[in-house]
Design brief:
By secondary structure, the protein is of the alpha/beta class. The protein has 13 helices and eight strands. Strands 5-4-3-2-1-6 form a six-stranded mixed sheet, with helices on both faces. The protein has a two-stranded antiparallel sheet with strand order 7-8. The radius of gyration is 27 Å and the shape is elongated.
């Protein structure tokens, strides 16, 4: 029977919530994050064991520019020790669940990653483990990898000890000795990420808040810290609900309290709309044969009714912009249906990128 997310989350889960929130921040900004190989965060899930994820604390899906998807599966521990001691259940659990993740039918070789996120670990252990995993990723095969540990290789005793820890845990978990190839394959997909949260001056908290300033509108940028606190709160609650996040749903959830800029993925489309609005302004005339009639009342009423226009694209990103289709000294805004640009032919919109 799968343990309930409420019990799996536990009481001391502020650090785990911060790790999830950090990846959610990257998703909001359409940015990459640690262990994603420059891919853009598209989806974040929490406590996904009930959905077939052995490493269930934080799951992240990210996409490359060519549409290739990678999945990062993380177990989160506030403190971590690298050893194969029977008493070291935290690390043993991470290694065992990473092995199960590797063995999933939908695991993508050389693309997906699994491992741990932690806040406190000895520097020497962290450096040795990451070096071993980078050695594996830099090697074309297991023979090349294990050659590094020979007398004239570039790996040291601390690296060999780290490999022995992994091999020991995996042998015991599988109740048999696993091959060099399986050890190599396991290590080249393993990651260990160290985060800095939950204290004054925490660098990753500062980085997240700075990143959030760039997704908020100019008038809301000073509230980036408030948004970070809101995201960590949402993450804490999400742990007990096996919550999933994408940008569309999250922006909708937050839009009552925060105003965001347009998504960077549709920036080119928004720029084209702005150019179109500017061209439309130039086409509007307020005179006939040099004669102009002042219509201040109608103009003021039109300005009020069209001051703010919310455009929701089929991609789900909301943005707000003052409408500039009313001429300086008069003029009219012709609207058909709900779309002020509906008089423009669909073929023209396709040339513009077709975001409506």
């Amino acid at each position: 029977m799968v343990q309930s997310p409420e019990l799996a989350g536990g009481d001391g889960f502020n650090f785990e919530a911060a790790v999830a929130a950090f990846y959610i921040v990257a998703m909001l900004g359409e940015e990459t994050a640690p262990a994603l190989n420059n891919r853009i965060v598209k989806w974040v899930g929490q406590q996904q064991k009930g959905f077939g994820e052995p490493l269930d604390d934080v799951i992240v899906d990210a996409c490359s520019t060519n549409g290739e998807t990678t999945r990062l599966s993380l177990q989160v521990k506030r403190k971590l020790t690298i050893s194969d001691a029977d008493s070291n259940t935290d690390f043993r659990e991470i290694v065992e669940n990473s092995w199960l993740t590797l063995k999933k039918e939908d695991f993508r070789e050389n693309i997906d990653r699994y491992g741990a996120a932690t806040g406190t670990i000895s520097d020497s252990s962290w450096r040795a483990l990451n070096s071993v995993c980078e050695f594996a990723r830099a090697s074309l095969n297991s023979q090349s990898f294990f050659t590094r540990f020979e007398e004239d290789g570039n790996a040291g005793k601390n690296h060999l000890k780290t490999v022995s820890v992994f091999r020991s845990i995996l042998n015991k978990f599988n109740e048999q000795d696993i091959s060099d190839h399986e050890v190599y394959r396991f290590l080249k997909h393993f990651v260990l990420i160290k985060f800095d949260f939950l204290h004054e001056g925490a660098t990753d908290t500062t980085n997240a808040i700075t990143q959030l300033r760039h997704v908020l509108s100019e008038k809301d940028q000073h509230r980036a810290h408030d948004l970070w606190e809101r995201l960590t709160s949402i993450s804490r609650k999400g742990m007990g609900r096996s919550k999933e996040f994408n940008r569309t749903g999250l922006v909708t959830e937050l839009s009552d309290n925060f105003q965001f800029i347009g998504a960077s993925s549709i920036k080119d489309d928004l720029d084209q709309l702005t150019q179109l609005a500017d061209l439309s302004l130039k086409d509007i005339t307020t005179e006939i044969d040099g004669y102009h009639v002042e219509r201040h009342g109608i103009l003021e009423e039109t300005k009020k009714s069209t001051e703010i226009l919310q455009i929701c694209t089929d991609k789900g990103f909301a943005w707000y912009r003052k409408v500039g289709l009313v001429a300086k000294n008069g003029g009219a805004l012709y609207v058909r249906g709900n779309n002020p640009f509906s008089k423009i032919r669909s073929s023209f919109w396709q040339k513009l990128g077709g975001i409506f």
